[in-house]
C-alpha cells in the first residue's frame, strides 16, 4: 500500500509504502502528520460497468464497490481495507474513488465485447473492462507534454509493463482498445500470470486432466508467466540468466517479447497507426533491453530506438531514434498524479 501527499502544483510532499496488514492507526497517524489534507483519492481496481469515472465516496458507493469484489477479489478487498483504515483520518474531508477500469469504460463496442452468447452478456454484464487505466491515462498525458502537443491530437500506444502488464491504444486522450479484458489475466505475459490462453485449454484441464477449477485459477494467476517459463517472476533475474546463456530464461524472454510486439502492433492497428509509443511501469521504466528488443521488430510501424538514450537511467525522456517517424518514450508511472488530477476535476 502506497500513500502520497501532493500539493496544488503536484509537488510530492511526502510518500510512504506500507506492508499489507498494517494497523489502521499507523496509516491514520502518518496522514495526520503530513499536514493539512483537502481531499483524499483512493485507487480502486474494478469499477465494473457502473463506475465510468471518479465518484465521491459514500456508504452506498462503498457497498457497490464491495459488490464487485468477485471480479477482482485480491485487488478489491485490499483497496476497501485501505479505504476503511483511513476513514478516521479522512473524516470530514472529501474522499474520492478513482477506478483503474474507468479509463477504458467508453471503448468502442467492437473492442469491448466478446463474441459469446448474448444471454451471458445480458445476464452477467460480461465485457472487456481493461485495467491499469490510471497509469495509461497519465502516461498518455505525460507523453503529449513531452511532445508539446495536445493529447487530443495524438494516437499513443501506452505500455504498462510491471508484475502486471497491459497495453492501451489511446486516441485523442481516450482508450479505444487494451489488452486486459474481463479480468487482469488476459493479454500479455506477466510476472506470474499467463496472459491470454486458449479457453479450450482451461476446459481441457478441468474436464480431461481432472484439475479443480481453483487449482487452474491458481496456476494461471500465480504459477504462470515468467515464473512458469523461467522459474522466476523477476524480469531482472530473467535478463541476467538469459545473458548468461540459460536456455529457459532465453525462451521466457522470447515468449514475453513475442506477445509484447504483437500487442503493440495490434494497439496501433486499432487506431490506424501510432504517433508515439510509451513505456511505463517497473519493467517498462528500467529494462532497456526489453524496450530495445520489443521495438526491433516494429520498424514497419516507424519505430526505432536510440541505443544511447535508451540506456540512460531514470527520468521521463525520449528514447527513439531521431530519424524514426514514430517517437518512443519512457515515462515514470505516476498513478498518484492521475488520481490527484481526477479528484480535482470531480471536486472542481
End-to-end gap: 27 Å
Count of helical stretches: 15
- The strand count comes to 11
Q: What is the N-to-C succession of helices and strands?
A: EEHEEHHEHHHEEEHHHHHEHHHEEH
Low-pLDDT parts are none
How much is the average pLDDT? 94
Hey, roughly how much beta strand do the residues contain? 5-15%
Q: Mind describing the biggest β-sheet?
A: 6 strands, mixed
Radius of gyration: 20 Å
Return the structural class. alpha/beta
CATH topology of the largest domain: Nucleotidyltransferase, domain 5
The best one-word shape is globular
Q: How would you name the CATH homologous superfamily of the largest domain?
A: ATPase, nucleotide binding domain
Corresponding CATH architecture of the largest domain: 2-Layer Sandwich
Largest sheet, spatial ordering of strands: 8-7-6-9-11-10
Helix content class: 40-55%
Write a structural description.
This protein has 348 residues and is an alpha/beta fold. It has two domains: 2-130, 2-Layer Sandwich (Nucleotidyltransferase, domain 5); 149-335, Nucleotidyltransferase, domain 5 (2-Layer Sandwich), CATH 3.30.420. Helix content is 43%, strand content 15%. The chain has 15 helices and eleven strands. The protein has helices at 24-33, 59-67, 73-85, 109-112, 118-124, 133-147, 199-207, 213-222, 225-230, 235-243, 247-270, 281-286, 288-296, 307-311, 335-347, and strands at residues 2-6, 12-17, 40-44, 55-56, 95-99, 155-161, 165-171, 174-178, 276-280, 317-318, 328-330. Strand 1 and strand 2 (12-17) form a beta hairpin. The chain is globular.
